[in-house]
């Protein structure tokens, strides 16, 4: 079936307003014209999309489905207009990235910097999110590319290896564990922790590994910023588990020590997540190819 974009735009407005008169006013049309368009859509679909009542209109189940796909189509057309407009003005694309803190704190700034040096007219919107929120944003079309830890369920998205990192125990310089070169996670769980956000990939991993040991994490403070976590540890408020390269930035200024976690899961893989590589824009494909680990 071929749908008229104007009719779909009118339907979205009617669905949002739940009222034909208000929708007609917003679209600068007569109510009869809006009603005719909706009737034509219903005839094309072969099912009622709206239930009319004294207060306005309500969506039928078919109307709910129509609204979902009409919004997706509208967003796609808007993205098409925006990107083609950018090409016309000499800008070669626009990529929206949602990434976990580990990627943003360690790798992404330099990687994007190298990419921009090669393609200086590409624009980026980059947002920091927890892993599950990254997946939702990519699945919903609010982000073109996500970066997650491998422990985060990809929910049907395609993934490729991005980088590897190592989680280490963070302790104050004078702590009883600061002289240790390495330590088992079981020993660490005897101490109180400064932990990350509930939905973060690090929290999910640590909670899962503690449960395997029949233990729980003693959380004194939960905070989302890696910088703030290091400051809290430095103040003696608990221990933390963070990527080693992040901790290395604060060891001198905050008087911290990074102790190796003697656990296989402490070495992690970060992944690129996206809908379909074959259906991606040339700009997005080029970026994915630039970021992915070679030969993996």
TrEMBL record:
Protein name according to UniProt: LysR family transcriptional regulator
Entry annotated with the keyword Acetylation: no
Domain HTH lysR-type intervals: 1-60
UniProtKB keywords: DNA-binding, Transcription, Transcription regulation
Signal peptide: none
InterPro entries, sorted: HTH-type_LysR_regulators (IPR050950), LysR_HTH_N (IPR000847), LysR_subst-bd (IPR005119)
């Amino acid at each position: 079936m071929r749908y008229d974009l104007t009719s779909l735009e009118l339907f979205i407005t009617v669905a949002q307003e739940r009222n034909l008169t208000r929708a007609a006013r917003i679209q600068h049309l007569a109510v009869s014209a809006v009603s005719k368009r909706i009737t034509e859509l219903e005839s094309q679909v072969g099912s009622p999309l709206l239930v009319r009542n004294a207060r306005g209109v309500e969506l039928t189940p078919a109307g709910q489905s129509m609204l979902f796909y009409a919004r997706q189509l509208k967003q796609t057309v808007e993205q098409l207009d925006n990107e083609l407009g950018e090409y016309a003005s000499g800008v070669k694309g626009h990529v929206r990235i949602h990434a976990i803190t580990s990627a943003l704190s360690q790798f992404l700034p330099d990687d994007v910097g190298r990419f921009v040096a090669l393609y200086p007219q590409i624009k980026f919107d980059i947002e920091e999110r927890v892993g599950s929120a990254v997946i939702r944003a990519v699945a919903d079309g609010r982000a073109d590319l996500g970066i997650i830890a491998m422990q985060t369920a990809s929910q049907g998205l395609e993934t490729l290896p991005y980088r590897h990192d190592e989680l280490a125990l963070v302790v104050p310089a004078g702590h009883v564990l600061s002289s240790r070169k390495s330590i088992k996670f079981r020993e660490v769980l005897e101490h109180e922790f400064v932990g990350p956000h509930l939905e973060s990939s690090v929290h999910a991993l640590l909670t899962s590994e503690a449960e395997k040991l029949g233990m729980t994490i003693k959380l004194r403070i939960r905070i989302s910023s890696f910088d703030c976590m290091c400051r809290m540890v430095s103040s003696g408020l608990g221990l933390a588990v963070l990527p080693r390269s992040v901790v290395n930035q604060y060891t001198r200024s905050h008087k911290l020590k990074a102790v190796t976690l003697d656990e296989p899961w402490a070495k992690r893989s970060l992944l690129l997540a996206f809908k379909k590589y074959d259906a991606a824009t040339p700009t997005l494909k080029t970026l994915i190819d630039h970021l992915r680990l070679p030969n993996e």
